[in-house]
Specification:
five-stranded mixed sheet; 5 strands
Length: 154
């Protein structure tokens, strides 16, 4: 089991265009997949997220290096659900894990969701991602009222 890493200072702030390269690098490190097309489609040329209801937050260490990020949005009336906050991306540089970075990011985005007037936050994760499942469950999240279904396309 990894030991907690002491970080001198962690600042959580709104993401900027110059953070995107660090976000892409963290994601590639954690997932093992470089996805420049995905990230470039998510952000416009000025580094803004497509869509007014999207939220981009980063965590940086005392040296100003981006060590984590979270992205979400307020979605309204999907499948009859009242508006709620959705987290669709969160990741922390493995060298900075177990120091509360992910918790700080989740707290920051849930504050923004509350400010937007929503009362619930949702996410979707792979059943096999036990680390992420433990993280979200440790923050009070549990199975919701919806079931994700899928089918292979020929």
């Amino acid at each position: 089991m990894a030991q907690p890493r002491q970080l001198d200072a962690v600042a959580v702030r709104s993401g900027r265009a110059d953070d995107i390269a660090a976000v892409m690098a963290i994601d590639a490190t954690v997932t093992g997949l470089a996805k420049p097309g995905y990230w470039n489609a998510l952000f416009d040329a000025d580094g803004a997220l497509a869509g007014d209801s999207r939220i981009f937050i980063v965590a940086e260490d005392g040296a100003g290096r981006v060590i984590g990020f979270i992205i979400g949005e307020v979605r309204a009336w999907e499948f009859g659900s009242p508006p709620c906050g959705w987290v669709f991306a969160i990741s922390v540089d493995p060298a900075s894990r177990l120091a509360g970075v992910g918790s700080g990011l989740l707290a920051a985005i849930t504050d923004r969701f509350r400010d937007a007037g929503v009362e619930r936050v949702r996410t979707m994760i792979s059943r096999g991602n036990h680390q992420l499942m433990s993280f979200f469950r440790g923050h009070g999240m549990m199975a919701g009222p919806y079931i994700q279904l899928e089918s292979e396309l020929d």
